[in-house]
């Protein structure tokens, strides 16, 4: 690619117009340092600040029993497995109390597609959480869980979401997106919701003023063109609804999964390149998250100069990625140091990117 071609692409990405799919794909051929500089410039333009946000919360997996059993997942179990579990309310309370004592603003609550759980169970759990800690934000249930529950209960997505909101649901995480291309999903998660169903849940949530995040798990069987198609679908829905507060891309962690037996992990360079392209392509989503959890804190710090303006959660508990053998850990003090050391000002936020540090 010529210097002139690169300049034309980056001028478009910088705001002169909107990147097409073909142009987005060409960005993979731009030198990494140049790409990072362009993404960082766009990050500063969209946020108009040198602040980097982070979150203190807990990822509570209330069950590991899941009927979907994706090939990339090392966490899920069948109901009859020896290590299958459903979290008791007593154990849930202990985790909630600990989260509050550590300064957490909310919980990420996910549990896969457990066929024994109905809407009454989940509403009861939400109500219980709010009765114990009314100030904790419940950021819960990814779109595949919503689709699974909707079909189980034979109720529409919007009606189901309204019921969950009434019980205490505050916002929706963007999990289960993987790559929003059905040919890819059929290879790695054939029993999970389709890309259209994932987008339908998010559309319904946004119409109900329920803010959500979006995710992208890459570095497995997808092509680079599939990643751009994923970003295109996210950007298109954001154009329609405006309900996404952030995209968090991360790489597939192969340990302990069926899919991981045949997949080489994505490199740090590929992660940074895809993160930067995500920042350049998603011109209507304000925040892009850097994933220290899957990449480690050092590469996560570098990602703050490749388009990332958020470094994610301290995550007082995490089980899904850990099951794949990725056991990176950090503290609030370390995250703040990492942000400061990279030349930014740390700001503590909640799950939908509201400041909670009163700075």
Topology at a glance:
Layout: H1 3-16, H2 21-26, H3 32-47, E1 51-55, E2 57-61, H4 89-101, E3 106-110, H5 119-132, E4 137-140, H6 143-153, H7 157-167, H8 182-188, H9 195-207, E5 212-218, H10 224-241, E6 244-251, H11 268-281, E7 287-288, H12 292-295, H13 297-303, E8 310-313, H14 320-323, H15 332-341, E9 345-349
Parallel strand pairs: 1-8, 1-9, 2-3, 3-4, 5-6, 6-7
Helix pairs in contact: 1-3, 3-11, 5-7, 6-9, 9-10
Largest sheet: 3 strands, parallel
Using the 3D structure, state the CATH architecture.
Alpha-Beta Barrel
Question: β content, as a range?
Answer: 5-15%
Mean pLDDT: 90
DSSP E strands, number: 9
N- to C-terminal distance: 45 Å
In the CATH hierarchy, the third-tier topology is known as TIM Barrel
**CATH superfamily assignment?**
Aldolase class I
- From the spread of the alpha carbons, the general shape counts as globular
Q: How many whole angstroms does the radius of gyration measure?
A: 20 Å
Count of helical regions: 15
Q: What is the spatial order of strands in the main beta sheet?
A: 8-1-9
Based on helices, strands and strand pairing, what is the structural class?
A: alpha/beta
Q: What is the helical fraction, as a range of percent?
A: 40-55%
Could you give the order of the helices and strands? HHHEEHEHEHHHHEHEHEHHEHHE
Low-confidence residue ranges? 318-328
Assigned CATH class? Alpha Beta
How many structural units, i.e. domains?
Answer: 1
Write a concise synopsis of the structure shown.
The chain is α/β, with parallel strands linked by helices and 359 residues long. It contains 15 helices and nine strands.
């Amino acid at each position: 690619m010529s210097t002139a071609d690169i300049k034309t692409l980056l001028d478009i990405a910088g705001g002169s117009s909107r990147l097409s799919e073909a142009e987005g794909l060409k960005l993979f051929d731009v030198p990494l340092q140049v790409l990072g500089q362009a993404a960082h410039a766009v990050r500063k333009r969209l946020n108009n600040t040198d602040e980097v946000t982070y979150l203190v919360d807990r990822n509570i997996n209330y069950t590991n029993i899941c009927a979907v059993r994706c090939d990339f997942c090392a966490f899920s179990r069948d109901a009859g497995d020896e290590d299958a579990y459903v979290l008791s309310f007593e154990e849930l309370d202990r985790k909630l109390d600990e989260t509050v004592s550590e300064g957490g603003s909310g919980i990420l609550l996910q549990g896969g597609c457990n066929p024994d759980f109905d809407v009454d169970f989940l509403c009861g759990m939400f109500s219980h959480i709010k009765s114990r800690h009314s100030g904790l934000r419940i950021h819960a249930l990814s779109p595949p869980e919503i689709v699974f529950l909707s079909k189980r209960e034979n109720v529409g997505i919007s009606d189901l979401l309204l019921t969950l909101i009434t019980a205490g649901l505050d916002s929706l995480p963007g999990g289960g997106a993987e790559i929003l291309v059905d040919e890819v999903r059929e290879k790695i998660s054939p029993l999970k919701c389709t890309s259209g169903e994932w987008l339908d849940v998010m559309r319904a949530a946004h119409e109900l003023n329920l803010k959500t995040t979006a995710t992208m798990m890459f570095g497995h069987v997808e092509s680079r063109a599939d990643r751009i198609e994923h970003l295109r679908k996210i950007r298109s829905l954001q154009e329609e609804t405006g309900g996404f507060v952030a995209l968090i891309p991360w790489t597939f962690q192969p340990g302990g999964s069926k899919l991981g037996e045949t997949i080489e992990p994505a490199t740090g360079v590929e992660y940074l390149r895809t993160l930067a392209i995500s920042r350049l392509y998603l011109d209507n989503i304000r925040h892009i998250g850097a994933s220290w959890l899957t990449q480690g804190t050092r590469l996560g710090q570098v990602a703050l100069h490749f388009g990332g303006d958020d470094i994610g959660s301290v995550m007082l508990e995490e089980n899904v990625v850990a099951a794949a053998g990725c056991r990176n850990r950090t503290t609030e003090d370390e995250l703040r140091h990492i942000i400061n050391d990279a030349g930014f000002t740390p700001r503590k936020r909640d799950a939908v990117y509201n400041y909670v540090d009163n700075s």
